[in-house]
Amino acid sequence: MTRLSGNNSNNMMLLVGTLVAALLIGLALFAVSKKQSTPAAGGEGTFNYASLPYAGQEDAKVSVVVVEDFKCPVCKQFEETVAPQLKTNYVDTGKIKQYSLVWPFLSKNAGLSVDDSKFAAQAGRCVYQERGNDGFNAFKTILFRAQGDERQAWATKERLKELAVNVEGLDQAKFATCLDTDATVAAVDTDTKMAEDNKVSGTPTVFVNGKRVENSMSYDELKKAIDEALQ
C-alpha cells in the first residue's frame, strides 16, 4: 500500500548530534514510506455511493469501494493483478458494484510544487461528468497504464489532455475546458473529505459493504470478505 517524512568533547557532541539528526531524518522518511506501503487498520466506513463512479450491475448485492491515487504505484499493481480477478469473478457476474474513490494525496506527500495527483483526480471527474461510468473506467485504465514516477509531476494538465484523446466518445474540447477551469475541484475535494472521514491512510484501501479489508492487495482476503457479504 502506498502511504502518508573543535576538541574531543566537541567532536563527540558533533558526532552525537549528527547521529540524532540522521535518526530523525530516517524516522521521517520511514513515516512517509509507511504511508505509502502499510495496510490501513480495519474499521467501518460510510460512503455516498451515489456520487461515485462504479463498474458492475445496478442491482449487485455487495458494494466494494476501492480508494486509489492515480499516481500510486501500488494502485497500478492492484489494477494489474487484483482488479482483473475481481472483475471476472464478481463484477461481470453481477455480484458486486465496484466503486472508485480517488484520494489525491501523493503529490503533497512527496512535496511536489505541482499537485498533479489532484489534476489527475479532476480529470477523472471531468470524464465521469461527460461519459459516465464507462468513460471513467476507461480513463482510469489509461491513466494507470501511462503512470509515471510518483516523485515527479507527470500528470500535468497537458499530459492528461493527451491521454484523454484515447477515451472513446469524449468531447475533447469540453474535457479541456473542464480541466483548465478546475470545474471539478469541488467534487474532488468532496471525495478527499470522504476518504479522510473514513480514516483512509494509504492506497489502495478497499471497503466491502463499508467494512475495511486489512490487506487490500490480497485477492484471497478480498474474496473472503466479499463471499461473507454475499451470504
From TrEMBL:
Keyword flag Ubl conjugation: no
Domain Thioredoxin: 23-231
Keyword check for Ligase: no
SUPFAM superfamilies: Thioredoxin-like
Matching PROSITE patterns: THIOREDOXIN_2
Gene Ontology MF term list: oxidoreductase activity
Keywords: Disulfide bond, Oxidoreductase, Redox-active center, Signal
Domain of life: Bacteria
Family: Belongs to the thioredoxin family. DsbA subfamily.
Protein name: DsbA family protein
